[in-house]
Amino acid sequence: MKHNPLNILVIEDVEDDYVLLQRNLKKHGLWKYGICVENIEELKHELYTKTWDIVISDNSLPQLNALDALKITKQINADIPFIIVSGTIKVEEAILAMKEGAADYLMKDNLAKLIPVVQREAKEARNRQQHKNLESDFMTFIYRCYHDLRGPIASLLGLVQIAYSDQTNLQQFDYLDHLARNVRKMDATLTQLLQIFAIREIVPQPETVSLAEIFEQCKKKLWKDYRVGELEWSLNLEQEEAIYTDKFLLKTVVEHILTNAIHYRSPARTLVIELSYDKNATHIELVLKDNGVGIPMSVLPKVFQMFYRGNEQSTGNGLGLYIVKTAVEKLGGQVAISSSVGIGTEVYINFPCIIDNSIKTKKLASFDYS
């Protein structure tokens, strides 16, 4: 199989080893352009000023070691595959390097193994870049769709309202109601797609955030939007310490989880939604729990996929939990979910934060909005 030649940055202080490496890669058509560096200044200069497909590094140089070179490389460009080729490397050092993001490590006396490793890493890097390009194109498509369709949808809703005022036939009213519901659903989908675009594009802006305040704001908005009958909210914060994070992203997460809880409430009982949190020195874990209809075990692995709907009866568009996952990842965190049919659902959000001990709020009691 023919492979495209690569731009390869080599970290090496022995000229003969560099020449041997270069010759081996050229023989297999993998060397397009390359240069050898020996210290931090040269490494940074090359990473900042040129485009590299792969970095190959010796383990220990007089002025630089592979682990430090790896960290510098990943800080400047996390997508460049980093391969260690060394005459001597301890197992502990190799394991640590792999944990830090090295693609592989090889011994200099076995360069035959280098070729398939370089081919593999180059292919995976191209696939990652293609995926990023497709994702970028998709986000651009979403943005254009929103702006091209938002105007006609607003006009259509306006025409429906005019038709209402001129209509006396009850059956025609039913048709107009059905049309209005579907147009609003389309409008909501476009709005959420634009929200995904915004989340992907923004740079998080940390600020001091009160969880109690965010919870209250989300409650008021959802109460206005859905007018749910019997509903209890519970905020379990013994002494909430305000956190330092992006308010827009955190509010987006909480709002969409609460919206899901309302959409999938059980008709057999009063909906109860609880928010609690725990923290350690570096991370916050939020838990949002409801007593809704629950999610089948077979569906759980798919709920964070874009446009996934658990069943045909679902009234949503399959974007809510995808938005939650996207926003949490933008915060540098992770999200997980557990659920039991007929009992309810719990969503766990874990993300890094800086605790601000200067702001305290008292625990808020549960109350009924019915």
UniProtKB/TrEMBL annotation:
Taxonomic superkingdom: Bacteria
Keywords recorded for this protein, A-Z: ATP-binding, Kinase, Nucleotide-binding, Phosphoprotein, Transferase, Two-component regulatory system
Residues bearing the modification 4-aspartylphosphate: D58
Coiled-coil blocks: none
Catalytic function, reaction form: ATP + protein L-histidine = ADP + protein N-phospho-L-histidine
UniProt GO BP: osmosensory signaling via phosphorelay pathway
InterPro entries according to UniProt: BphY/WalK/GraS-like, CheY-like_superfamily, HATPase_C_sf, HATPase_dom, His_kinase_dom, HisK_dim/P_dom, Sig_transdc_His_kin-like_C, Sig_transdc_resp-reg_receiver
GO molecular function, one term: phosphorelay sensor kinase activity
The species this protein was found in: Microscilla marina ATCC 23134
Protein name stated in the entry: histidine kinase
Domain Histidine kinase: 144-355
Response regulatory domain span: 7-123
CDD domains named among the record's database cross-references: HATPase, HisKA, REC
Enzyme Commission identifier(s): 2.7.13.3
